[in-house]
Amino acid sequence: MQLITPLLVQVMLIFFVMFYLVRYRVSELSAKQANPDDVPLRQAKWTDHTARIGNNFLSQFELPVLFIALVILQVVTKTDDTVQLYLAWAFVAMRVLHMLFHTMCRHNQARVMTFAIAAFILLVMWVRFAIAFYS
User: Fold this and answer.
1) Is 1.25.40.10 the CATH classification of the domain at 4-134?
2) So where are the chain's domains?
3) How far is CA 48 from the centre of its chain?
4) What is the pLDDT of residues 64-103, one digit of tens each?
5) What is the pTM of this model?
6) What is the pLDDT of residues 106-126, one digit of tens each?
């Protein structure tokens, strides 16, 4: 059950990025920096900062989806352990750093590195789950 806590933190990160994005998009629409008619077609011309937040929001439905599925599977199959818990926290920490590098500063090398580390951690978690499940 301890794996639920990093899962909830990851979900809170997703909602944080969503509200962060809404704040900037509403601001730009109010200031007429973007055309409201272009939004439903995904053709709105957002500022670079808002576009980065939007891209980060989309990235919250890439690796994190595999993380969420894995945590649910581990809790249901009771294959979680302390190592998986530490790996889960490391994954979430990398996702938080990835969000910060992606949305608040333009440090692409650090962003790519945190993404790669998170992907590797997630791969290790899935391999460990498969081994535990089939043993």
Assistant:
1) no
2) 4-134
3) 20
4) 999 999 999 999 999 999 999 999 999 999 999 999 999 9
5) 0.91
6) 889 999 999 999 999 999 999
